[in-house]
Amino acid sequence: LEHADTSGPHGLPLMGSGDWNDGMNRVGIGGKGESVWLGWFLYENHKRFAYLCDIKGEEGLSDQHRQRAEKIREIINQVAWDGDWYLRAYYDDGSPLGSHRNKECRIDSLPQSWSIITDGAPKERQFKAIDAVDEHLVQHEDRLIQLFTPPFDKTEKDPGYIKGYPPGIRENGGQYTHAAIWAVWALTELGMGFQAYEQFKLLNPITHSLTNEDANRYAVEPYVVAADIYSKAPYAGRGGWTWYTGSSGWLYRLGMEAILGFKLKGDHFTIDPCIPDSWDGFNMTYKNSSTIFQIEVKNPDHIEKGVKEMILDGEKMQDNKIPFLQDSKKHHVIVRMG
């Protein structure tokens, strides 16, 4: 935290030779370029570390981290809002990246999704940011969600080795699945269940090979997650590297935790779905050793998010938490949305 928590000309953390997107390794190579995404990431981690300090009784340290988190949040909202979405970064010379003023990389999904995942942006900006992602980066016809657009090609700026990829390949304006999953996760944080499920289907590799034509275009295995998918002709819709990406774990969590809403938390689990309002509900079975929980989610009012009550074996749970019973029995859980 101390190493990353720096401050550049705008008060944002320095980008150095790359942040999450290591291909942008020359945006801040001179020591003055700043990363908006890293700002959101630090904001979240200061908050989480403050919580750990609370557990250890380190009140003074906890206060320091919370104060630093709040300062970062204020700075981002002051210097990185571009009108309809958040900037991605500032170059060493102070010019913006990920701005409507840029001809290439006008909008990047990362600072938009993380402004929502961290809940660091004002609510009206959160909805504006995710609407911008949907308008500019979600490509329904080609079944992908771009990392940013337009790709780097002719810009005189040198963002780094990312510009060495052809336009639409890998991080250079293709779908980088890791980031695409965060963009869909952000939808669930806003309670947008229909959009989240529709975009989850874009990320599901099976849906890229439902016909021979689809499979031939996708060109990689339809039963594992591809790290990237190309976005520009003649390779639009073709999968990139498979078998090596941590996006597979994130995609599983997106479906299980963010959409179906099943989350393990210490000595209990919770269920808080974010689903299409057309769903009547769904069923799932959770096995904890030899104890089985048969879970029935009901959505009588056809809403996208919101839990009215949770019932375990006929008893209403006051805090909507289901305890980890270990009695080798079967238990019935009813989750009623509303």
Description:
With 338 residues, the protein is α+β, with helices and mostly antiparallel strands. Helices cover 32% and strands 18% of the residues. It has eight helices and 17 strands. A hairpin with a 2-residue loop joins strand 10 (262-265) and strand 11. Helix 6 runs antiparallel to helix 8. The chain is globular, with a radius of gyration of 22 Å. It starts with 33 loop residues before the first strand and ends with a strand.
- What gap, in angstroms, lies between the N and C termini? 40 Å
Q: Compute the number of helices.
A: 8
**What fraction of residues sit in β-strands?**
15-25%
- Give the neighbour order of strands across the main sheet: 12-13-17-14-15
Helix content: 25-40%
Radius of gyration (CA) equals: 22 Å
User: How does the major sheet shape up?
Assistant: 5 strands, mixed
Class from helix and strand fractions:
alpha+beta
- Number of distinct beta strands: 17
> How confident overall, as mean pLDDT?
96
- The coarse silhouette is globular
Unreliable segments (pLDDT under 50, ≥5 consecutive)?
Answer: none
Order of helices and strands: EHHEEEHHEEEEHHHEHEEEEEEEE
Would you kindly provide a brief summary of this structure?
The protein has 338 residues and is of the alpha+beta class. The chain has helices spanning 36-55, 59-79, 109-117, 123-136, 177-189, 193-203, 212-218, 247-259; strands at 34-35, 89-90, 96-97, 107-108, 138-139, 144-145, 148-149, 175-176, 228-229, 262-265, 268-271, 281-288, 291-298, 307-312, 315-316, 322-323, 330-337.
